[in-house]
Amino acid sequence: MNSDIADSSNNKKPVLKFLDSSLRLSVIPLSVATIWLTVTNKEFSSIYGELEFRNLPALKYMVCISAISAGYALVAAIASWIRYFVTKSWLFFVSDQIVAHLMVTSGAAVMEILYLAYNGDQKIIWSEACSTNGKFCNKMKVALILHALVLCCFIVLAVISAYRVFSLFEPPLSSKEVEEERA
Length: 183
Fold this sequence. Notes:
Layout: H1 2-39, E1 42-45, E2 49-52, H2 57-79, H3 83-86, H4 89-119, H5 134-166, H6 175-182
Antiparallel strand pairs: 1-2
Helix pairs in contact: 1-2, 1-5, 2-4, 4-5
């Protein structure tokens, strides 16, 4: 039975490798599009002046993390085909986890900015800005959606790399099996 499991696991590895490479390569244009939308997004209003990504630290952070994720995805896609790195599955596991977590933090920061831009905060007398800067807000929504797609790719990549790392080890013994070994 264990050989059946090992055989079916080996049959799925080419599919996992193809899925892994496809997701990593998909991340690159999505991240570049996020960066481009964010960096080129500018709008002027008489109330708020010029809105652009340089004025908002959360957008700068998202641009940096998107650049890091695109660069890492390219390097990891290339490295996944080099035999030396394929044996270092823990390296991909840790790196995928770090990038996925960075994507969550930058997405949350931008989501907060968008929430305040759409709703304002009456307690501290911040008015909403999207009624006068709709183009800016709409482009940021699209950039956030692209960023979320990249995050989804990295979540799947993190699961794949976790599977690769933890499939190298035997499953833990159940308490029933431990009792049988003692007897």
